Amino acid sequence: MLLDSTLAYLHFLSIFGVAATLTAELVLLRPALIGQSGRWLARVDLIYFIAVIAAVASGVSRAIWGAKGWAFYAHNPAFHAKVGLFVVIGLISIAPTLQFLRWLRAFRRDPAYMVPAAELKRARRAVMIELHLLLLLPLLAVMMSRHLWL
After folding, report:
1. Distances in Å between the alpha carbon of 70 and those of 27, 37, 65?
2. Residue 150 within a domain
3. For residue range 16-75, what is the model confidence (pLDDT) as tens digits?
4. Which of 5, 18, 105, 136 is the most buried (most CB within 10 A)?
């Protein structure tokens, strides 16, 4: 029971980390982005990546060693929907990450570099979509744990 509780706690913390870093990215993605914000974006995105890895690792650990066991998750459609949604969010995050890295290189070459408005808008939209999709994960988790989709 202690192992299951610990794994659940670590999973929740990592998901909160994902949400917090995405929110921080959204705050930093504002018009007239300055060089320092561009550098912060790349750092926050790295922390986001670490939080995602922690969420996956703790989630897989819960599924394998948690109280419900793999048999519960393997045949649960809500679990598959949750994992699929998480993958979709991850795929959406690739474009902003690549953009942040391009901006970081541009800021290093020219400290006065200004991010084009269209690029900023595109990155902000992607992060906003990620955040909105992230809101569905707890719903799927509740459905999964309450056997609402079986």
Report:
1. 38, 43, 8
2. no
3. 999 999 999 999 998 766 666 777 899 999 999 999 999 999 999 999 999 888 998 888
4. 18
Residue 130 in domain = yes
Structural domain count of the chain: 1
Q: Would residue 18 count as lying in a domain?
A: yes
Q: What is the Cα gyration radius of the chain? A: 18
107, amino acid identity: F
Distances from the Cα of 83 to the Cα of 64, 66, 91, 137, angstroms = 15, 17, 12, 9
Asked if the structure places residue 49 within a domain, the reply is yes
Contact assessment for residue 30 and residue 117, using Cβ atoms and an 8 Å cutoff: no
Dist. CA 75–CA 60, nearest whole Å: 15
